[in-house]
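Researcher: Here's the sequence for the chain we discussed earlier.
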Amino acid sequence: MNKNSINRCSWADNKYPEMQLYHDTEWGVPVHQDTRLFEFLVLEGAQAGLSWSTILKKRQDYRRAFDNFDVKRVAEFKIRTVNKLLNSPNSNIVRNRLKIQSGITNARAFIKVQYEFGSFDNYLWRFVEGGKTKHNFFKNYQQVPVRSAESDNLSKDLKAKGFSFVGSTICYAMMQAVGLVNDHVTNCFRHKELLEINNK
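Model: Thanks. This is the structure I predict for it:
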């Protein structure tokens, strides 16, 4: 099958190959590994005010900067690490002090959640009914919301636990990314595939 001739969500049907690959292989697939959940928490926070394609292009740089999203190591980052990431010519992440500091703050809060719930995965999936993907059936991407009651609840709880850059819109984007919701439009080939994955 010609990958350029299949139907996909409009935001991924563009000239950026990394966006198509991400859409076709990752977006909406349920994630249960804490390291990957922490990665998306950092990346979605970094995206605030920017395009997702910008962050995807810097993804490998973020993995290097944040020690492959080893949450325990990131939690130990000091102010000198923040300054290095801000000022080093070799650093290609978004150079925003608040966003970088947020990654460290969130790592420390993340560890506390792991301790309380056994894993961040156990905690996160409580915010969708039955701990299973919520499948939506939108016909076009204009119908897809930017927040939901579930993301409002998640945002409120994360903030109470000391997380930052976790507004409801950011939380909903993360929920879409890691499969808490399936927001592929109904004529996108991935919508049916994710339905089948969850029904196995």
